[in-house]
Design a protein that fits this description.
This protein has 2 helices and no strands. The protein is an all-alpha fold. The chain has a domain at about 40-70.
């Protein structure tokens, strides 16, 4: 029960972090535009990027942990 609540909180935080990230290419890369740009993240953008990675790892780990606990 407690793992479900923690996983829901992580899922909401992960969704928020993904939505807050800045997309550099937009639709231009979809239709063959110049998508070969180098982006260096700084400050809050870097923090959100790293937080997204850690939240995704935590979400995956909790999912596997819940799967092993139920069996």
């Amino acid at each position: 029960m407690i793992l479900n609540i923690v996983q829901i909180c992580i899922a909401l935080s992960l969704s928020l972090c993904i939505l807050l990230q800045h997309r550099t290419s937009g639709l231009t890369a979809t239709f063959g535009g110049g998508g070969a740009t180098f982006v260096q993240r700084r400050g809050a953008e870097k923090f959100i990027f790293v937080a997204t990675i850690w939240l995704a790892v935590l979400f995956f780990t909790l999912s596997v942990l819940q799967w092993y606990i139920t069996f």
